[in-house]
Design goal:
The complex is a heterodimer of chains A (277) and B (578).
Chain A (H helix, E strand, L loop, with lengths): L26 H16 L6 E5 L14 E4 L5 H11 L4 E7 H7 L1 H10 L3 E7 L34 H8 L3 E6 L3 H13 L3 E7 L12 H4 L1 E2 L8 H10 L4 E7 L16 H5 L5
Parallel strand pairs in A: 1-2, 1-3, 3-4, 4-6, 5-6, 7-8
Antiparallel strand pairs in A: 5-8
Helix pairs in contact in A: 1-6, 3-4, 4-5, 5-8
Chain B lengths: L8 E8 L5 H14 L3 E8 L8 E8 L10 E6 L14 E9 L8 H4 L4 E4 L2 H6 L6 H13 L3 H12 L4 H17 L19 E4 H12 L3 E4 L6 H10 L6 E4 L3 H13 L4 E5 L1 H17 L3 E7 L16 H6 L8 E4 L5 H16 L2 E7 H4 L2 E4 L45 E3 L13 H16 L8 E4 L6 E6 L2 H14 L5 E5 L1 E3 L3 H7 L5 E6 L5 H9 L5 E6 L8 H9 L5
Parallel strand pairs in B: 1-4, 4-5, 5-6, 8-9, 8-10, 10-11, 11-13, 12-13, 17-18, 17-20, 20-21
Antiparallel strand pairs in B: 1-3, 2-3, 2-14, 7-14, 12-19, 16-18
Helix pairs in contact in B: 1-4, 1-5, 4-6, 5-6, 7-8, 7-12, 9-10, 15-18
The chains are: A alpha/beta (277), B alpha/beta (578).
Chain lengths: 277, 578
């Protein structure tokens, strides 16, 4: 073991100097740290990574990294990310956002990104609340959570992102806790390396509107069983888990979305022959 | 209609239902006409049914280029009359017109017989049945070809080309059915014929939707995100197999929200990108288009208009997405709106718009419509034009690099992902020159100024409008889009009667170009504004942005009835000078 590996990039090389808008104690600070650690682990050039987000507290993340970034519009991060990846397959594409952005307004793109299986990593910082608009229930909020917009709670069953990801064809499904920076970084690195669409739900507490989530750090636990590549088994586990099970919970081998950009040397004169009678 | 030798054209409507094959007959006739050295235009009118609805192939053939439909049809032939009353209003006939009907297939709708057209009965079904494997649509192909003076030989060639792969029996059956049609035409006096031309130059047969796709490809589009919608789907279907031939690709999106945003993502990655849609899809794309404007990411949207509002009249044409294209974005969001003026101009306008979007790093909406998009036209091969996607890219940024630097012309060099040191975050949030979110009044003002300046002060050259006619004309017709062609033909007829009139068909609908407009309309005393919109969207756009000289009159109506040259001629003639 004499081989000396020269670490070229440090975690700080992946971070920008911009100060986040997040509240002190927000779980998203840890997620940012985990992303930079994962990129450090993989030694990816910052300029070859694109971080694409929607709108919401967590969607502010692109500008806090030293990657190329796109802070798009509410719910559309995955669509923009898909365009970036197909146009520039050599880039590492990370889509990021929150639970409202990804599962409510962007829900259709979530289903179809899982299905399309484009090679990218989707990180959802799930705090079960709309934070930027000051505390409204999101699709993952408990039905009885009281708020000004839905007094007494929504009464609606929470959305189950991991089960839906599996049913929609996602190939890599994981859950982590933002407070576990190292564990999250490892899963993100794993997700980036996995071909196809990788989905990582990060439980990231909102200290401002969901102070009750402080207890999460005591509730989360590593999955008791090893990861599976059997979707039926994964479905049973995901349906019955307590929502605090962490780790890579499903890893399939479905082929990533394939597309051909053909031959750049083709010429228009050949194409226009089809119009000649 | 016959207006002297040069202007002779013949208009034919072939109608039928339930897979009767009238579109096939129409397409074959158009190709045969091309072989005979003619020009032509075929439009279609169909019902909303997926299969088996009423359908009509509407053709106009002539020895000179044809760009619009005529006032009336010379010949109307029906395989059957099922559902024909639903589009009979779109097939105006005159007393000189000829209706050919098979009495076994039902009664002719009254709205057609009211015209006083001559009616001739031909047992089309029986003639088809007399040939083994014969079909009625081939009988009417022969019948009409004979009546208008087309030789059988080019038709036989097309049959061999189109049906060859179905085997000799199919070719033989079709040829015999066509011959039966030719024979049946023997005793019928035709209202009008065209003279096949010796001019056998190379011609193209192309639809407006294909033309838009071709123009986009020629302009450098290499990524398309697609969500199907009538009547724009053919733009996407044409591009799908052709993009990979030049290093491009198409992704089918889950909805229009995805397609516009995928296109923006691909363009951010450095590939000139496009999507195509129609009214309802354009409505869904508006927020994304605003993102392209704010983040200064070039993107092209081809919007093939259909009747609106809401789901409207999906299969028929109207010029009513002008308002949303120009005004649909929230905030002050300068962008480009262009419109093609004919089937073949769909090539030029789309190619030019790719160039504009890329040069100015903004969104360009190209308006076409169902009439042009789904019409097939025989055209002269178009000139090769030099407009290409040429984006101002910074490939070696140093530490002072600012993605949204405030520049004199408003365009800032863009770095592409993969370029070391050029990292920035594109944003729909207002930002400072570095691209970082900002709510400062100065940043908002400077960035708004810059985004406005790059679009408002760009040199659009002469392409902002097609202007035809003498400088001193006191009478001007202002129009846009597919209506241009009816106006052009109306002006030709007026010129023939000694009335001079200038045509101004606007290709650039946003931003406004008041200097060019004023210069072009200098001296005008009467201005007629022609459009296919119930509320007069174009008239209002002109009123809001331009000084309209002299007396202004609006001639407009909603779709689907196409504006025809004769009604414009009449409007001008009946416009008594105050």
């Amino acid at each position: 073991m004499n081989e000396i590996i020269q670490k070229k990039f440090k975690a700080s090389d992946y971070k920008s100097k911009l100060k986040p808008v997040w509240c002190p104690g927000c779980g998203d600070y840890h997620v940012l740290l985990s992303i930079t650690q994962a990129l450090t682990k993989l030694q990816l050039k910052p300029e070859n990574t694109a971080v694409i987000s929607g709108i919401g507290c967590s969607s502010r993340i692109p500008a806090y990294t030293n990657s190329y970034g796109f802070h798009t519009i509410h719910g559309r991060g995955l669509a923009v990310a898909t365009g970036v990846k197909v146009a520039r397959p050599e880039l590492t594409v990370i889509a990021a956002g929150g639970d409202g952005d990804g599962f409510s307004i962007g829900g259709n793109h979530f289903l179809h990104a899982c299905r399309r299986n484009t090679d990218m990593t989707y990180i959802v910082m799930d705090n079960e609340v709309y934070g930027m608009t000051k505390g409204q229930p999101s699709p993952t909020t408990d039905p009885s959570w009281d708020s000004a917009l839905s007094p007494g709670g929504t009464g609606l069953s929470p959305f189950h992102p991991l089960v839906i990801a599996l049913a929609s064809g996602a190939n890599f499904i994981a859950r982590t806790f933002s407070g576990d920076v190292k564990g999250t970084a490892k899963v993100i690195a794993d997700a980036i390396e996995h071909p196809g669409f990788s989905f990582v739900q990060i439980l990231s507490p909102c200290v401002t509107f969901r102070p009750d989530q402080k207890i999460w750090k005591e509730q989360v636990h590593e999955a008791m069983v090893s990861e599976t590549d059997d979707p039926a088994r994964a479905a049973r586990r995901l349906m019955s888990d307590d929502g605090f099970n962490t780790g890579v919970l499903y890893r399939g081998s479905r082929e990533a979305y394939r597309f051909s950009c053909g031959d750049e040397k083709g010429d228009m004169e050949e194409i226009q022959k089809q119009f000649e009678v | 209609m016959t207006d002297g030798d040069q202007n002779t054209s013949v208009s034919v409507a072939m109608v039928g239902s339930g897979g009767a094959g009238v579109m096939t007959s129409g397409n074959m006739m158009l190709e045969a006409a091309t072989k005979a050295g003619l020009y032509g235009l075929m439009t279609r009118t169909v019902g909303p049914q997926i299969r088996g609805g009423e359908a009509a192939a509407l053709l106009r053939l002539s020895g000179k280029p044809v760009h619009c439909v005529d006032d009336t049809f010379d010949i109307l032939v029906a395989v059957d009359w099922k559902g024909a009353e639903r589009f009979a209003g779109e097939v105006p006939l005159g007393a000189d017109s000829l209706i050919i009907t098979d009495p076994a297939t039902g009664d002719i709708p009254e709205i057609l017989t009211d015209s006083g057209a001559r009616i001739v009965e031909v047992p089309i079904g029986e003639l088809a049945a007399s040939v083994e494997g014969g079909r009625a649509n081939m009988v009417i192909l022969g019948l009409v070809a004979s009546l208008i003076g087309l030789d059988e030989e080019p038709i036989n060639k097309i049959i061999a080309k189109k049906l060859g792969k179905k085997g000799d029996a199919a070719v033989k059956a079709s040829r015999e059915a066509v011959s039966a049609g030719y024979d049946a035409a023997g005793g019928i006096t035709s209202p009008v014929t065209v003279s096949p031309s010796d001019d056998k130059k190379d011609r193209w047969l192309i639809s407006g939707n294909q033309a838009a796709g071709f123009g986009a490809l020629r302009g450098g589009i290499r990524f398309v995100a697609a969500y199907p919608i009538t009547p724009a789907t053919e733009v996407l279907e044409w591009m799908s197999p052709n993009l990979p031939k030049v290093g491009g690709t198409l992704v089918q999106a889950e909805d229009e929200l995805a397609s516009i945003n995928m296109a923006i993502g691909a363009s951010f990655g450095g590939r000139p990108s496009l999507t195509a849609t129609s009214g309802p899809g354009l409505s869904l794309m508006m927020e994304g288009i605003g993102l392209a404007v704010s983040s200064e990411t070039p993107v092209v949207i081809v919007n093939v208009m259909r009747g609106g509002p809401s789901t409207g009249v999906p299969t028929k044409s109207e010029q009513t997405d002008l308002n949303i294209a120009v005004y649909g974005l929230h905030g002050d969001a300068p962008h480009i709106v262009t419109a093609a003026t004919s089937v073949e101009d769909c090539i030029f306008t789309t190619q030019w718009s790719v160039y504009l979007a890329e040069a100015m790093q903004t969104a360009a909406i190209v308006l076409s419509d169902q009439f042009m998009g789904q019409a097939s036209s025989i055209i002269d091969p178009p000139a090769n034009i030099s407009f290409m996607a040429q984006r101002l890219v910074e490939s070696e940024p140093d530490e002072s690099y600012l993605r949204y630097a405030v520049t004199a012309d408003g365009v800032s060099p863009m770095t592409l992902p993969g370029t070391p040191g050029g990292q920035y975050t594109a944003d729909g949030l207002e930002h400072n020159p570095k691209g970082l979110p900002s709510t400062l009044m100065e940043d908002h003002r400077d960035q708004m100024d810059k985004r406005d300046r790059k679009v408002a002060e760009f040199n659009y050259g002469d392409h902002w409008a097609d202007v035809e006619g003498d400088d001193g004309c006191e009478l001007v017709i202002l129009t846009w889009g597919s209506t241009t062609n009816a106006v052009r033909e109306a002006i030709e007829r007026l010129n023939g009667e000694g009335v001079s009139c200038k045509l101004v068909a606007m290709r650039l609908l946003s931003p406004a170009v008041p200097e060019q407009f004023d210069q072009t309309l200098m001296g005008a005393k009467r201005v007629l504004v022609v459009e296919q919109s119930h509320s007069g969207q174009f008239l209002k756009l002109l009123r809001a942005n331009y000084n309209m000289p002299g007396e202004v009159k609006s001639y407009r109506r909603p779709g689907p009835l196409i504006v025809r040259p004769g009604e414009i001629v009449d409007t001008i003639k009946n416009w008594s000078v105050q």
